[in-house]
């Protein structure tokens, strides 16, 4: 099983043009093993098969990596849940500082355990509602995978974005209606179509910046 998952991850990252070393791939698979273990008791994700976790959680989270440009970035993963896309991104880029924010104590308990077991020194876990969160440093990138529609996402996190920062929202089908409803003081910098090995459904990354 472990060998099959390792081969699946290695092939997937190669297909997407990513360069993850053996240690990073090992940590990603350890994260899947931990998620599968906790999921039996806490029902963190509807996906229960480790093979689908590799495609739908690891590769799906890593797909926008080439678009997240910059070194030493501060990244906020809003509504992180069980840690996607934040944990895979933090493993892939140890130079980034990643904050996982979720108001659900059960989920952040898992996140803290994952950070501890995987030795992710560049990850911080915060149990807080996003509108009440007031960190000392704003974020270069604010991302989410299944948090809210675009206008709500922007509205709730505006106070957390650095001056030259951007919102990066992972979506399924092209979100025409959500884009049309964005407030006038922000604009869409681009929408990237993401090809994720093992996922037939459409995936898009919507990049939003202050107007």
From TrEMBL:
It comes from the Bacteria. GO terms for molecular function: rRNA (guanine-N7-)-methyltransferase activity. Its EC number is 2.1.1.170. It catalyses: guanosine(527) in 16S rRNA + S-adenosyl-L-methionine = N(7)-methylguanosine(527) in 16S rRNA + S-adenosyl-L-homocysteine. S-adenosyl-L-methionine binds at residues 79, 130-131, 145. It is found in: Cytoplasm. One of its GO terms (cellular component) is cytosol. Keywords: Cytoplasm, Methyltransferase, rRNA processing, S-adenosyl-L-methionine, Transferase. InterPro entries: rRNA_ssu_MeTfrase_G, SAM-dependent_MTases_sf. Its main location: cytoplasm. Gene3D superfamilies: Vaccinia Virus protein VP39. HAMAP family: 16SrRNA_methyltr_G. Specifically methylates the N7 position of guanine in position 527 of 16S rRNA. Belongs to the methyltransferase superfamily. RNA methyltransferase RsmG family. NCBIfam families: rsmG_gidB. This is Ribosomal RNA small subunit methyltransferase G. It comes from Formivibrio citricus.
């Amino acid at each position: 099983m472990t060998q099959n998952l390792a081969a699946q991850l290695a092939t997937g990252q190669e297909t997407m043009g990513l360069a993850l070393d053996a240690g990073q791939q090992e940590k990603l698979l350890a994260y899947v093993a931990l998620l599968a273990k906790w999921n039996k008791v806490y029902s963190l994700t509807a996906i229960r098969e480790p093979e689908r976790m590799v495609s739908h959680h690891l590769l799906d989270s890593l797909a926008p990596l080439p678009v997240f440009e910059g070194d030493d970035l501060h990244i906020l993963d809003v509504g992180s849940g069980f840690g996607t896309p934040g944990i895979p991104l933090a493993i892939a880029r140890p130079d980034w500082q990643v904050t996982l924010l979720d108001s659900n104590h059960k989920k952040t308990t898992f996140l803290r355990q994952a950070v501890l077991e995987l030795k992710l020194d560049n990850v911080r876990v915060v149990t807080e509602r996003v509108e009440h969160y007031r960190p000392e440093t704003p974020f270069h990138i604010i991302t989410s995978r299944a948090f809210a529609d675009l206008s709500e996402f922007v509205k709730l996190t505006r106070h957390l974005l650095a001056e030259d920062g951007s919102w990066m929202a992972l979506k399924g089908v092209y979100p025409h209606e959500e884009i049309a409803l964005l407030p006038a003081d922000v604009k869409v910098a681009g929408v990237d179509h993401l090809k994720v090995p093992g996922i037939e459904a459409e995936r898009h990354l919507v990049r939003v910046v202050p107007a």
